[in-house]
């Protein structure tokens, strides 16, 4: 923008100067020619009284004095054919002046000034002088140089003023861009100082208001999450007591583990909300091998009850990834939960965790009917669920520097590949 404003001002300045300086330069040349012509005419007219009345010798002496003073050739044509002064041919202008008409004409050597003199008994005499072209344009080149330098100076001044003006416009815009990027990077305390034109000050005020509203909304969201957690404490405690009152120790342990998992999920949700509201918080790191192994072991109990064969391939750990342990556990639960929700009992599935140079790849494959169309869309489900499981997994993968891919296996079952990046540093 700054460069474009400077280019615009330079273009306008040059066009304006051309519009004024070209006619002015032509006027300077015309004035110089006219001034020189008038001076030469006045010198020639000073001979009129002498040529009209004096003797031949007097005319000759006077003409020689004028030539010496002016430096221009002066010729006097008498009616009897006598030529005094500088030798010169009888030009058409001289012939016309011999009939009594004074005039100025252009010639090869310059500008020819001829004056008809009345009063001699033989008839009109003619005084002729020639103004050389060098004398006609004397001082014009210097005047044009001064005008050109003045025009260049005006262009430079215009560019300096335009640069200052552009700077006063671009600086607030740059600050607005910087603050918007800081807000995008979760620096919610960033504010812009209103400056520049009224429109930019209004935009700065709107951006500051937006940042304040974001802080308020995030604070309200955190409070709502905290309230939700507090409300869930009571039913979770009741579930824990009910689990402990079960007579079968295995059932009691399984239900208690489920309650513990739910409580961890709620606590993780609160921590995640608080982490997102803290700009100084760093990205959590977890061991993918430990988390995946623990969650597969948990789901293996249900798989055994439903007659599903589980194949687990874990790369040796630790395998650090840029996702919190609770969040990664929720992702694994979502992927495995989809297997149980969308495949009939007895359908085998496999979980494979491998590491490579790009990070960690988690693959969950089953031998069921495959994924329905649109299963990856948030809120889309064909089995009566919330339809958020795959979306949670996808968002976690993107937050961890990876991505989620859904496909179909060789046998027709669904395959989910979750790529997780390694933590920075």
UniProtKB/TrEMBL annotation:
GO molecular function: ATP binding; phosphorelay sensor kinase activity
Source species, domain of life: Bacteria
Chief site of localization: membrane
Positions with biased composition (Low complexity): 415-425
Transmembrane stretches, start-end: 143-162
Domain spans labelled HAMP: 167-219
Annotated keywords: ATP-binding, Cell membrane, Kinase, Membrane, Nucleotide-binding, Phosphoprotein, Transferase, Transmembrane, Transmembrane helix, Two-component regulatory system
The reaction(s) this protein catalyses: ATP + protein L-histidine = ADP + protein N-phospho-L-histidine
Protein name: histidine kinase
Organism: Micromonospora palomenae
């Amino acid at each position: 923008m700054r460069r474009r404003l400077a280019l615009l001002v330079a273009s306008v300045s040059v066009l304006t100067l051309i519009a004024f300086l070209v006619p002015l330069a032509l006027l300077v040349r015309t004035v110089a020619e006219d001034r020189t012509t008038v001076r030469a005419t006045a010198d020639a007219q000073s001979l009129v009284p002498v040529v009209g009345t004096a003797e031949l010798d007097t005319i000759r002496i006077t003409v020689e004095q004028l030539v010496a003073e002016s430096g221009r050739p002066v010729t006097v044509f008498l009616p009897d054919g006598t030529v005094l002064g500088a030798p010169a041919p009888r030009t058409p202008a001289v012939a016309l002046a011999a009939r009594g008409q004074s005039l100025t004409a252009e010639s090869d050597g310059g500008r020819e000034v001829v004056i008809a003199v009345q009063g001699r008994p033989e008839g009109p005499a003619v005084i002729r002088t020639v103004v050389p072209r060098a004398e006609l344009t004397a001082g014009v080149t210097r005047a044009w140089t001064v005008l050109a330098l003045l025009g260049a100076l005006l262009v430079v001044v215009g560019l300096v003023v335009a640069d200052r003006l552009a700077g006063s416009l671009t600086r607030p815009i740059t600050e607005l861009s910087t603050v918007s990027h800081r807000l995008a990077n979760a620096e919610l305390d960033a504010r812009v100082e209103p400056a520049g034109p009224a429109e930019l000050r209004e935009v700065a005020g709107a951006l500051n208001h937006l940042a304040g509203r974001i802080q308020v909304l995030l604070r309200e969201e955190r409070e709502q999450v905290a309230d939700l957690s507090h409300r869930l404490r009571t039913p979770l405690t009741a579930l824990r007591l009910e689990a402990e009152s079960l007579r079968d120790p295995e059932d009691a342990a399984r239900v208690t583990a489920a309650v513990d998992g739910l409580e961890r999920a709620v606590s993780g949700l609160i921590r995640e909300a608080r982490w997102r509201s803290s700009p100084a918080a760093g990205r959590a790191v977890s061991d993918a091998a430990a988390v995946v192994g623990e969650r597969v072991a948990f789901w293996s109990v249900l798989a055994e009850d439903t007659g599903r064969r589980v194949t687990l391939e874990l790369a040796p750990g630790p395998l650090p990834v840029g996702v919190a342990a609770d969040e990664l556990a929720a992702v694994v639960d979502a992927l495995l939960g989809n297997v149980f929700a969308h495949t009939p009992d007895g359908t085998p599935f496999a979980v494979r965790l491998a590491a490579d140079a790009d990070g960690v790849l988690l693959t969950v494959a089953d031998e069921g009917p495959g994924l329905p169309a649109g299963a990856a869309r948030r809120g889309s489900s064909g089995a009566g669920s919330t339809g958020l499981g795959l979306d949670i997994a996808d968002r976690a993968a993107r937050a961890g520097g990876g991505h989620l891919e859904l496909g179909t296996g060789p046998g027709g079952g669904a395959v989910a590949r979750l790529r997780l990046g390694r933590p920075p540093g």
